[in-house]
């Protein structure tokens, strides 16, 4: 087992003690019997464990916990659940616990200031909790940038969402689409604003208008179906629909079928967020994989680096996406 894969939990399990006892034994703090301390240190040496500098610092002087704040509608979205698990997994590797902050109450009672740092994912400008989180007095990492004012985050992990949509639109054009549309939230988040800007830029570069229809940030399949039905009825020649919100793409397919059209040939369908809905539909839907679990891990890693001093405040790291092509964009051929 390599030192990178070994965590404090592995050491504690091998020594037959709790995580906190293992931490105290390795740090030389707390009331730990000498025999126990030696057993823990022997287990650490055998496994090749090397304590993370952020975790060492936190255990000496602070709570050893960080907070995770997700968008208000995240609890029913597959993408954010995967992201949260990734963040928790990565934080545990540094011996850090993760506290999930409840939407709407995250900044109340000073809770945000009682953790050592915060991860705020896809912050929206109209979310009243976000300014308080950014001003909590602890290091804050945002997943995507915050477009509102007030205190700036300590760091951000961003995905090039504009380029991902451009690649998706290029793919649709290559498969024969000549009149595409985009279902996207209003520009209240970095993600949605980037998608809208990319659609406008693609329109300018190709001379082909991308019709943009506004839907909620976490649009349901029913809401996506209604928006697509309106687009098909009011946009002559519409032959491709890109659905931005996670999990809403089955509604697009339902609207296409109800209009008597074939998805994948007469109307190409794609999604800006890959997930179970895109993979499990018929036809399976071409989508941008934002690699949610890895994204969560990168946010947790950056926060750990900021806490330990391994990263300077203001740092921005990039996160890679992938395009998965499936039968929903097979094309007219």
Characterization of the model:
- The chain is 41% helix and 15% strand.
- The protein is an alpha/beta fold.
- Helix 2 (19-27) crosses helix 3 (34-47) and helix 5 (78-93) packs parallel to helix 12 (292-308).
- It is elongated.
- Mean pLDDT is 89; it is low at 56-61.
Which helices and strands, and how do they pair?
Elements: H1 8-15, H2 19-27, H3 34-47, H4 53-61, E1 65-69, H5 78-93, E2 97-100, E3 118-121, H6 130-134, E4 140-143, E5 155-159, H7 161-174, E6 180-184, H8 190-206, E7 211-214, H9 221-234, E8 240-243, H10 249-258, E9 268-271, H11 276-280, E10 286-289, H12 292-308, E11 315-319, E12 322-324
Parallel strand pairs: 1-2, 1-3, 3-4, 4-5, 5-11, 6-7, 6-8, 8-9, 9-10
Antiparallel strand pairs: 10-12
- Report the end-to-end length measured between terminal Cα atoms: 51 Å
Structural class: alpha/beta
What is the molecular shape?
Answer: elongated
Task: Describe the largest sheet.
Answer: 6 strands, parallel
Order of helices and strands: HHHHEHEEHEEHEHEHEHEHEHEE
Which second-level CATH architecture of the largest domain applies?
A: 3-Layer(aba) Sandwich
What is the domain tally? 3
Strand order of the largest sheet: 2-1-3-4-5-11
CATH hierarchy class name of the largest domain: Alpha Beta
Q: Number of DSSP helices?
A: 12
What name goes with the CATH superfamily of the largest domain?
A: Response regulator
> Overall mean pLDDT score?
89
Question: Over all CA atoms, what is the radius of gyration?
Answer: 23 Å
Total beta strands: 12
CATH fold naming of the largest domain: Rossmann fold
Approximately what portion of the residues adopt beta-strand conformation? 15-25%
Helix content: 40-55%
Q: Name the poorly predicted regions.
A: 56-61
């Amino acid at each position: 087992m390599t030192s990178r894969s070994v965590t404090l939990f592995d050491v504690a399990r091998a020594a037959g003690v709790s995580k906190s006892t293992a931490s105290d034994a390795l740090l030389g703090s707390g009331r730990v019997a000498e025999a126990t301390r030696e057993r823990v240190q022997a287990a650490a040496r055998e496994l090749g464990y090397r304590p993370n500098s952020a975790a060492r610092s936190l255990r000496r002087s602070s709570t050893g916990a960080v907070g995770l704040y997700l968008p208000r509608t995240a609890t029913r979205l597959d993408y954010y659940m995967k992201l949260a698990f990734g963040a928790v997994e990565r934080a545990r590797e540094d011996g850090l616990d993760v506290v999930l902050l409840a939407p709407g109450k995250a900044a109340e009672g000073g809770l945000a200031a009682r953790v050592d740092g915060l991860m705020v994912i896809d912050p929206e400008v109209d979310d009243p909790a976000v300014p308080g989180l950014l001003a909590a007095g602890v290091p804050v990492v945002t997943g995507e940038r915050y477009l509102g004012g007030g205190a700036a985050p300590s760091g951000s992990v961003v995905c090039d969402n504009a380029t991902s949509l451009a690649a998706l639109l290029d793919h649709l054009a290559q498969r024969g689409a000549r009149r595409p549309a985009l279902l996207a939230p209003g520009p209240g988040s970095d993600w949605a604003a980037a998608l809208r800007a990319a659609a406008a830029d693609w329109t300018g570069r190709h001379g082909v208008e991308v019709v943009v229809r506004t839907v909620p940030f976490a649009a349901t399949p029913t809401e996506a179906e209604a928006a697509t039905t309106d687009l098909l009825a009011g946009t002559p020649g519409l032959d491709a629909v890109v659905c931005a919100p996670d999990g809403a793409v089955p509604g697009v397919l339902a609207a296409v079928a109800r209009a008597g059209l074939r998805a994948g040939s007469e109307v190409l369908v794609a999604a800006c967020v890959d997930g179970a809905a895109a993979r499990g539909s018929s036809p399976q839907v071409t989508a941008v994989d934002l690699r949610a679990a890895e994204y969560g891990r990168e946010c947790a890693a950056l926060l750990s680096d900021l806490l330990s001093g391994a990263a300077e405040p203001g740092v921005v790291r990039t996160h890679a996406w992938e395009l998965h092509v499936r039968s929903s964009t097979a094309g007219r051929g």
